[in-house]
Amino acid sequence: MIVSKFGGTSVGTFQAMKNSAEIVGSDTNRKLIVISATSGTTNDLVALGISELDATSQEEILIRIKERHLSITNQLENKEEAERDFKEELTQLRQHLEQVARDKRWKDRLVSFGELMSTKIFIHVLKENGVDAKWLDAREFLKTDSNFGNAVVDLPKLKKNISEKVNSDSVYLTQGFIGSDIFGNTTTLGRGGSDFSAALFAEALEAEKLEIWTDVAGIYSTDPRVVKEARPIKEITFDEAAELSVFGGKVLHPATLKPAIRGKVDVRVASTSEPEKEGTLIVHESLEKPVIRALSLRKNQTLLTVKSLAMLHQYGFLAKLFQVLANYKISVDLVSTSEVSVSLTLDTAVNASNKVELTSDVINELKKFCEVKIEKEYSLVALIGNNLNKTAGISGAIFDKLKDFNIRMVCHGASENNICFLADEPEGEAIVKLLHKEFIEVQE
Ligand code: ASP
Ligand code: MG
Fold first, then answer.
1. CA 401: distance to chain centroid?
2. Domain limits, CATH 3.40.1160.10, in the chain
3. What is the CATH number of domain 2-215?
4. Residue 345, Cβ density class (10 Å: 0-12 exposed, 13-18 middle, ≥19 buried)
5. How far apart are the C-alpha atoms of 274 and 262, rounded to whole Å?
6. pLDDT at 140 over 80
7. Does the CB atom of residue 379 touch ligand 1 within 6 A?
8. pLDDT tens, 326-361?
9. 421 C-alpha vs ligand 1 centroid, how far in Å?
10. pLDDT reading at 3 higher than 90
11. Which site from 109, 173, 348, 363 is most exposed, i.e. has the minimal number of CB atoms within 10 Å?
């Protein structure tokens, strides 16, 4: 069995839906199809939930949502049915907006309309492409806690529920991203959560493969906007892919990989506009294990250095430091220590999934027991590969190329899949270009 997930751009227009439907129909092993909202719709729905929104802007957004979807249904042969199904959702959305205060709980219901609308239409597109799929409401089997906006899934319940709904005799279509709590309230798994839903479904159904269909042809060796020679990686292990997604590879949300790892499900990432290309296969065991497979770059990193003479031959200082950071929910990336000082890096990029804010409160808290120094504008470069902690001479080979740069916070050895370091922010791109040329382009 294959679970196939199509992202927002892969269902964003009639043509995109048609391409996706053709892909579904081209392999009868694709039994569960999971889709996102049409691209732009979740953002629109989030905007509708803003309490200061005036009536005119609300109407504008609703019209935009309506037109986006009707421009798809309009191109269907049997457009009446699809339009009716879509309009039913739209009416409910309007009623929902009238009835409810815009609190957290109702915001999840509000954004869920995106996936409900897209699936209501896509089922008809599938049909016109010869795939007679059954429509499933994911909220009936994806049960979660009541942590609205970021709900935690009840996996044993999902396993039980989904196996009662899905069997290999049919093809099913359902929504990513949404679920419901024990009271039946709609919940969501966090932005970008459709990949995660699909991975959980694949795990729960013990599928052989999970496909993530998107608008890029797989996971790239590095960001192609930085290095034009970057190429999709043919095959990568879960350990490497996890490091890569944590350090800035944008294709998959880090959480996606966990269910696939637990369930031993291979993952394929491919593009709906070039379905004939293999894309990237994420596997448990890879035959080829290059020492360096990919590079990532994260800008806007902050270096926090704390110093205390009281740390000399003392115990408990690090515990105290990390306790303060934990109290303020600050997540730390790299750590380096000397006898009396500790340096930490924090992801302060605006678009970071785990964006850290160093408020004056936390700084004052730290100043109670140590000197604090904050330096901004660093780039974090990570090299991802295999056996990096056991390959003789590898750090020499890397840093030999970087003689002209000021490098700090080298972290090597904690993971066999990664070496990373900080550089001055403006030099990050040049470093990635240089390392890509030296260590990745030569492999081709
Ligand atoms: N539609 C949701 C979002 O835009 C979920 C997803 O696309 O993965 O965040
Ligand atoms: Mg998406």
1. 32
2. 2-215
3. 3.40.1160.10
4. buried
5. 30
6. yes
7. no
8. 999 898 999 998 888 999 999 988 777 667 888 999
9. 32
10. yes
11. 363
